[in-house]
Specification:
By secondary structure, the protein is an alpha+beta fold. It is built from six helices and six strands; from the N terminus they run H-H-E-H-H-E-E-H-E-H-E-E. The longest helix is centred in the first third of the chain and has 76 residues. The C terminus is likely disordered.
Length: about 260
């Protein structure tokens, strides 16, 4: 009986020792798990920080690239002196408006204009003053056309104005208004300057080249006839031209398609 009691005590002691060992082992494992967990969390936090930093740098790079692209687009489509569309951008708008007019038949007019004797201004006052005159002329035109109209610098002192949903007669009145506003405007350093205008209208079947050439021919006619005037060339025939300068407009012999 005593021996049985001793065996039970020894068994209990062995069980207790085993239990203590298992608890100790479990605690060590738990501590290691906590350590790994903290290390893993630290790694995740660091990776998160690194990813956020990388994403931030990526966003900055994308924004910078977008700014560069916008700047390049602006340089490619905006005239740097006058801050209006250049010839390349105007060609894009002209193509779009011609296609739109072909579809909806709302009429489309084109004005070419040129500052008179501009070379003399450059020769007498210098190119800096000449640039100021061009910028001032751009403002005069921009303030006296509709928001839907598009003015572009065609080259040198020559400008193109596209007037959507506008007949040749309305465009002629607009050109005459611009001629008068230019004539009465006091340009910096040089005083009064005049401009000549050529007006035409798009008809179905016109190409960009034919429409532009017709407006350019009308402008050439205005300069040939004494400058500071408006010439209209109808799409029907280049021979049928009506012009006016400071006198009241006469539309005699003007035939619209």
């Amino acid at each position: 009986e005593l021996w049985m009691r001793v065996q039970i005590v020894l068994l209990l002691m062995a069980f207790s020792l085993f239990a203590m060992f298992m608890l100790s082992r479990h605690q060590r494992i738990w501590n290691k798990l906590n350590k790994y967990k903290r290390e893993f969390e630290n790694i995740v936090d660091q990776r998160t920080i690194d990813m956020n930093l990388t994403n931030s740098l990526l966003r900055e790079e994308i924004e910078e690239r977008q700014k560069i692209e916008e700047k390049l687009i602006q340089l490619a489509t905006i005239d740097p002196l006058t801050s209006i569309p250049n010839r390349r951008k105007f060609d894009e708008v002209l193509e779009y408006e011609m296609n739109r007019d072909t579809r909806y038949k709302n009429k489309l007019a084109l004005i070419f204009c040129d500052l008179d004797y501009f070379k003399k201004i450059n020769d007498r006052y210098g190119h800096k003053i000449g640039d100021d005159v061009l910028k001032a002329f751009t403002r005069v035109v921009s303030e006296n056309i509709r928001k839907t109209d598009v003015i572009a610098r065609w080259g040198g002192e020559e400008f193109a104005i596209l007037l959507p949903e506008t007949s040749i007669m309305i465009a002629a009145r607009t050109a005459e208004k611009l001629r008068k506003e230019t004539e009465r405007f006091g340009f910096p350093h040089v005083g009064h300057v005049t401009a000549s205008f050529g007006v035409t209208q798009y008809v179905e079947g016109d190409s960009e080249a034919s429409l532009i050439n017709r407006a350019d021919d009308a402008l050439y006619k205005a300069k040939k006839n004494g400058r500071n005037r408006v010439e209209l060339m109808t799409p029907v025939s280049a021979a049928k031209i009506v012009s006016y300068d400071t006198k009241p407009v006469s539309y005699t012999n003007l035939t619209l398609p």
